[in-house]
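Handout, page 2. Input:
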Amino acid sequence: MNIKMSSFCKEDIAEISIFSGYPQAIVREVLEFKFLLDVEKYFTTKKISLPYIGNLDIKFLGDKIIEGNREAIIEGSFTPSDFFKRIIGEAEDGNNELIQELLEQKIRPALSAIINDE
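Output:
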């Protein structure tokens, strides 16, 4: 069973697929498993981890009915990881060397694999 995605999720999957060299179906499957794990974690810790980015603390406030469907009312607070703060700080200061280095480390092998497959 596939989870229905919004258009921005589809765009994210397409971009990850392009940069990683993995088929969109694989990327989607991995992200669906991450989503399911996050929902499970919510019920035990009330937190969701965003790899490399930080943590999202979630608070359930209640329910509301919209067009006959029940929707949760939630609040969230974000705690960025030290790594994410470093990346953002450097980028805001005009220093993109670290992010360029990370992209090159990831993209170069993916492009090489694609070229060698052809």
